[in-house]
Amino acid sequence: MKRAGLVLAAAVVLAACATTTSPTGRTQYMAYSDSQLNQMGAQAFAEMKSKQKTLSGGQQSQYVQCVVQALVAQLPAEWRQLQWETAVFVDDSPNAFALPGGKVGVNTGMFTVAKNQDQLAAVIGHEIGHVYARHTNERASRQSATSTGLAVLGALAGARYGQTGTDLVTQGGGMAAQMGVLLPFSRTQETESDEIGQRLMAQAGFDPAQAVDLWKNMVAASAGRAPEWLSTHPDPQNRIRALEARAPSLQPLYQAARQAGHTPRCGT
To answer: GO cellular component terms (predicted)?
Structure first.
């Protein structure tokens, strides 16, 4: 029963998915078009701005916009052509995000953690990396595939064991999928965005070594967190070690960018 269900689920999902390659060379499966995700991203961003207080102009808004523009300028042409938009939300939590379609949000609380423009570029570069690598589409596609698979297995179990069988598969299978597929997959995306963002900031003329300092500041500012195996994000210390290991190899890229005139002057 399980084998037949998985084969059927896989056939349904794969028929609807397109295969792409991420900026780091990783194979991805997408069930949705870029235009669909871009439209949803724009709608979500507009809704957030309507419900949360944002800064209208001012130094901090210009600061964020300057950093975003410097990073976006290093993306391939098709990504530069998106309607990039920034907003600064009045919120003390140190957080930032980017949505499909080129929508970037930064909380005012981030300025207490990102101490200079290079550290802010590390945060925003990471978030732009999610957009550039189509992570929202990928994750939505994976969740859709998981739901489809569980629905098929639940139907087959119900045919053999009744409603009890269906419930066991959908409830127990949902937990197993979350622990074994969706959470680790999200950590893969986070690690990939770290790599993309750190390279992007070096190409834009921001010091890639500052990504390490940024995450040290984030750790210092955060309270306790769940173990890595229960989290959608890599363990902070593992993340810092990876950023530290990558930074020296990006220094030549950073120096070349500065010599080529990429010298952002966005703020503190």
So the answer is: membrane
User: Does 132 reside within a domain?
Assistant: yes
The predicted-structure confidence for 151-200, as pLDDT tens digits, reads as follows 443 443 333 334 443 343 344 444 433 433 334 447 888 899 999 999 99
- CA nearest to 68, candidates 127, 110, 124, 133: 124
Domain around 198 = 2-259
What CA–CA distance (Å, rounded) separates 132 from 138?
12
- With beta carbons less than 8 A apart as the criterion, state whether 58 and 111 touch: no
Distance CA 67, CA 180 (A): 37
Contact 256, 52 (CB under 8 A): no
Calpha distance 243→241 (Å, rounded): 5
pTM over 0.85: no
User: Which residue, among 124, 131, 177, has the nearest Cα to 37 in the 3D structure?
Assistant: 131
Active-site residues, by number, are 127
Domain assignment present for residue 267? The answer is no
Closest listed residue to residue 1, CA positions, set 146, 155, 147: 155
Sheet hosting strand 96-99, strand order edge to edge: 85-89, 103-107, 96-99
Count of domains forming the chain: 1
Would you say residue 158 lies in a domain?
yes
pLDDT in tens, 49-84: 999 999 988 999 999 999 999 999 999 999 999 999
